[in-house]
Specification:
This is Glutaminyl-peptide cyclotransferase. The chain is α+β, with helices and mostly antiparallel strands. The chain folds into two domains: 35 residues; 229 residues, 6 Propeller (Neuraminidase). 16% of the residues lie in helices and 45% in strands. The strands form six sheets. The protein has a four-stranded antiparallel beta sheet with strand order 1-22-21-20. The longest helix has 33 residues.
Length: 276
């Protein structure tokens, strides 16, 4: 009987010790999980707004030699849309068509200028087009293995494209072959649906499809290091036209150090200011 009491006491003490150990492990795990910091928000202000042709289903948005260019897609359920590349006159909202694709064959996607050439992606054809940057005459095309083409930008050396996943593909502008893949993560989680892209002072800024944010990506490791929440602009766009689609379009003018944003079928282009 005495032995039984001793054994029971030993068993009880062991349970307490084991429970304490488990609690310590649980606490450590919780602490480690909580140690992943939330991505910091980047504050911004609206500087100005300009008219935007509300028939443009925005896919690409950028400046080249001081002019704002935009590429648009052409969803089948929106018969008035066209797959275009246009030049904007910000002062009066007029657009000049530079390229038009046959919408029965192609859905225009992102664009980028590099080395006096304009590159354009298409949605599901796995085909890109190359144009002379001065005349906009088509001078070539290229294939890519990505299932879809979404956004484009450049770091001055490579073409960088998104495809709706969490991966950014770097292409050699001379051979149009894949150089590398950059996997993008937000708080250690893959960030899917990366859309329109813009390269600003060493960082890649990107729209995320169906989210009202622009993320700032460190190209050295693919980590999201900041976010701009543009929900207020999306809400304003909806009050002007309830049929607007998602936020999409980031254009940086290096000559003026200004940034402009818009969205699919939006009635306005917004100039925004933030630390970059």
């Amino acid at each position: 009987m005495k032995f039984t009491n001793i054994a029971s006491t030993f068993f009880a003490v062991s349970l307490v010790a084991l429970s304490s150990c488990n609690n310590e492990q649980s606490s450590t795990t919780t602490t480690e999980t909580a140690a992943i910091p939330a991505t910091p928000l980047i504050n911004y202000s609206i500087v100005n707004q300009y008219p935007h042709d509300a028939s443009l289903f925005t896919e690409g948005f950028l400046f080249y030699n001081g002019t704002l260019y935009e590429s648009s897609g052409s969803p089948k359920d929106l018969p008035l849309t066209k797959s275009l590349v246009v030049a904007h006159n910000l002062s009066n909202g007029h657009i000049e068509t530079k390229v038009e694709l046959d919408k029965s064959k192609y859905f225009g996607e992102g664009i980028v200028f590099l080395n006096d050439k304009l590159y354009q992606l298409t949605y599901k054809n796995q085909t890109g087009f190359i144009y002379d940057a001065k005349t906009f005459k088509k001078i070539g095309d290229f294939k890519y293995s990505n299932i879809e083409g979404w956004g484009m930008t450049t770091d001055g050396a490579s073409l960088i494209m998104s495809d709706g996943t969490n991966k950014l593909t770097y292409l050699n502008p001379k051979t149009l072959t894949q150089e590398k893949i950059l996997s993008v993560t937000d708080s250690n989680t893959p960030l899917e649906s990366i859309n329109e892209l813009e390269f600003i002072k060493g960082f890649i800024y990107a729209n995320v499809w169906q989210q009202n944010v622009i993320v700032k990506i460190d190209p050295s490791n693919g980590k999201v290091v900041g976010k701009i929440d543009l929900s207020s602009l999306m809400n304003e766009a909806k009050t002007k036209n309830p049929n607007v689609d998602v936020l999409n379009g980031i254009a940086y003018d290096p000559a003026t150090d200004k940034v402009y944003v818009t969205g699919k079928l939006w009635e306005n282009i917004y100039e925004i200011k933030f630390a970059h």
